[in-house]
Amino acid sequence: MKQARRLDNAPPYLFVEIEENIKKALENGVDVINLGIGDPDMPTPYFVVRKMAEAINNPVYHAYPEYDGSMEFRCAVAQHYKKRFGVDLDPETEVVALLGSKEGIAHIFFALVNEGDFTLVPDPEYPVYELATALTGGVPYHMPLTSGNGFFPDLSIIPKEVVKRSKILFVNYPNNPTGAVADLKQFQSIVDFGLKHDIVVCNDNAYSEFTYDGIKAPSILMADNAKDIAVEFHSFSKSYNMTGWRLGFAVGNKDAISKLKKMKNNIDSGVFTAIQVAGIEALKGCEKFVEGMQKIYARRRNIAINGLQKLGLEFELPRGAFYFWIKVPKGYTSKTYTQMLLDKTGVAVAPGNGYGEYGEGYIRISLTISDERLKEAFERIRNLG
Ligand SMILES: *Cc1c(COP(=O)(O)O)cnc(C)c1O
After folding, report:
1. What is the rounded average pLDDT for all residues in the chain?
2. What range defines the domain where residue 21 resides?
3. How far is residue 12 from each of residues 8, 69, 139, 179, measured CA to CA in Å?
4. pTM
């Protein structure tokens, strides 16, 4: 059977090989410590689960949901935004519920990008920006994120011809995989760039609640005139350990949101209303819960700092998210170091080149594993000598 040409365009998923190798190791009885995945290891908070148990028994929620999310959900998002970021949102026009943020991120490319248009995406990046571009027939322009530029794109080096033909720019702060956090001034520069060139600018804020050392992550919508051009994506997956529930939302510029809604309404029929009810509960109870999670990740971050320093590995101190972006030792590539670690220690990591060309020479480890296993992983690597 022949697949559609657009699928040929989708770049191969670089993590497939490492996943195969992990599977093989497990089959051979290796006790694999997987530091490669970004899926929280802790359960959804009980107060959210309890609300869901109650909601699922209400037949009112068994019917088709409202396409754009229930008004209650959108109002709860608007209230959350006001409280957390000081940003006013109109729940009617500036908020849409998503089946996980990945769905909305992919669909906004379909809503805005024509074949041959450029998209401006970070490198390294969360692979969805790249894949969605490929599926639309657009052309991704990679904005390098390097330690030299503080893992923030230098907009001045993008060729004029590319800027002219670009429809959308994506950034992701707090950043996966580098751990960088943008400040408001940096977001303002993105917004000003978008306004000047009529390019919709998007921030993927999936890690908004995970920052360290007293830093508080801003929203791109806090920048002046942001609502004229910017959209922000949020996810319940990371903040509330809800990856399996599939709930997120997009907020911001009402034209862009309306085009995203139009795209979505032709493909999906909205989020199960009971899940939205549980999501409202998560937003209401978020402060206390998130505080607890922050403490856990801060503790694990210290374990990782300690372990990496003892190993003498060069790494970026993460200011946000729950990953470490680590330079591979001399003589290795991302792939060979990843493979060596798995073969010799049973520790699985994510090879940096899976996140883009500029990720070559790095690996990413994740803090979504217990303190004990994390310590053991460093112990095993240290014993390599
Ligand atoms: C995990 C993650 C998401 C979340 O995706 P969901 O579809 O909401 O689960 C989005 N963006 C980035 C950068 C992520 O790492």
Report:
1. 96
2. 5-44+288-382
3. 9, 33, 16, 25
4. 0.96
